[in-house]
Amino acid sequence: MLKGRGLGLPALPHTIRQLLFAPLPDAHVPVKIHGWVKSVRRQKNVAFAVVSDGSHDKGIQAVFPNASQARSLTNGTSVRLEGRLLASPGKGQDKELRVDSVEVLGRSDPEKYPIQKKELTVEYLREHCHLRPRTDAVASMLWLRHIVSNSIRGFFENNGFCYVHTPIITANDCEGAGETFRIAPDSTLAPVHSGDAAPKPSEFFGHPAYLTVSSQLHLEALAASISRVYTLSPCFRAERSQTNRHLAEFWMLEAEWAFTQTVHDVCNVVEAAIKQVLDDAADKSEGSNPWSERAAKLQAEIATRDWPRITYANAVEELASFQQATRAFHFEPAWGLPLQSEHERWLAENLAKGPVFVTDYPAELKPFYMRLNDDGKTVACFDLLMPGLGELVGGSLREEREDHLSNAMRKHGLQTDQYDWYLDLRRYGSAPHGGFGLGFERLISWVGGIENIRECIAMPRWAGRMLL
Ligand code: 4AD
User: Fold this and answer.
1) With a 6 A CB cut-off, is 387 part of the ligand 1 pocket?
2) Which processes are annotated in GO (biological process) (predicted)?
């Protein structure tokens, strides 16, 4: 997946990964590498530096036959090194660069550089989020995002889905949960045309506009044309939750497809997609990486079996009887109440001992668009709960019957005229359909074993925090 093979375009210098994975060139062939110094070790006559361009988690060891060549190198310095690539006698590396010449591209003051070799806390690094991509942990997380996105793309490609792009600025609150960021009337996003009087920002669209909380409604419009669609897109929620699984800006994988009949079919697609991600993250054919061990372990433990499904009603029964016996929960579990994260964790960790789909929640607990079951009380939906994380995915069959949908909108206190376009999808050739949304950072956290999703995105935003 992280291609090392082949040396790529002549217009681009080789990356360290490309050089490490290519066959060893003849000892007299000069090679150039570019990167940043991660560490320097000086001995009497010789010096060693680890140089990384981020393309390979370990970087490359550069050997300076004359220690004075490394005189001006400090952590963080950017360099161009020319030398010869040789088989390395050192442990844990096949190749090293024997340096002939050093060019310092950018100095880094060792007294001031905030990203020193010593152990840095996640809190400290969040304060320096423009520099923290230079740490090994954040760099490898960025590659994990890359691998997982490619894996997802491959999965949907193989299953006949079209990758589509949906709007970020929207007119509706898809989830109806009141967590939308409104684009403020005095927003500087309002254009000023030279020569024209600046339009009053509040008149820009002629009505309120929001940042999207989910692409689902727009995806439904596209699935009503080309049947199977998906997107990986930023979503924005003005959530005040200060937890390790909530961000104000996060990425969501969402898929929507027509002609699906049961909520279990939707669960099957989700399960297969996540198993594919584990396979790809565990793949060591392009060299090991910091997360492949964990992905392989998860793969062995859970990807080889079918993930259980339990209805909300049964889940509440299990929770209630455990509560009766132990009084372990802070929140009392009862039919009609939302599952709290302590309940979700218990279901995955203790009851299922692995991922578990909880299906058929009461209609009042879920958004208006979910398909009402024949019992008239519950909807054909699911949450996928993961051990150590809680909810990773939410999905459902969508209500395809116009009368049921407008009833549900009214019950949820929504004005049907604002969703007229969405109702149109039910008026003209409505088809049974369904889909899901998966929190991308939560997936990265789970696959990568990264405790907080603030470390699963380069520049996190959460209530009270947006540095750059
Ligand atoms: O369950 P949610 O709210 O579902 C929807 O938005 C649907 N419209 C999606 C769909 O069916 N197309 O969100 C889906 C997932 C959650 O399970 C969670 O993983 C993630 O999005 N998520 C968040 N991730 C990080 N920070 C937040 N504030 C999140 N809110 C939801």
Assistant:
1) no
2) asparaginyl-tRNA aminoacylation
pLDDT given for residue 6 in this prediction: 57
What amino acid occupies position 404? H
What value of ipTM does the predicted structure carry? 0.99
Q: Is the CB of 435 under 6 A from ligand 1?
A: yes
- Ligand 1 in contact with 250 (CB < 6 A)? yes
Q: Is 386 in the pocket of ligand 1 (CB under 6 A)?
A: no
Ligand 1 center from residue 161 Cα (angstroms): 21
Residue nearest to atom 11 of ligand 1 (CA): 436
Tell me which residue has its CA closest to atom 2 in ligand 1: 394
Domains, the chain, ordered by start: 16-113 (2.40.50.140), 133-170+219-232+242-455 (3.30.930.10)
Q: In the chain, what percentage of residues exceed pLDDT 70?
A: 94
Region of poorest pLDDT, from 38-42, 84-88, 195-199: 195-199
Q: Is the pLDDT of residue 444 over 50?
A: yes
Q: What is the pTM of this model?
A: 0.94
Ligand 1 centroid to residue 211 C-alpha, Å? 14
Segment 163-177 shows an average pLDDT of 87
| Mean pLDDT across 450-465 | 95
Report the percentage of the chain scoring pLDDT > 90.
78
Over the stretch 296-344, which tens digit does the pLDDT of each residue have? 999 999 999 999 999 999 999 999 999 999 999 999 999 999 999 999 9
Q: Would the CB of 355 count as within 6 Å of ligand 1?
A: no
Q: Ligand 1 centre and the CA of 147: distance in Å?
A: 21
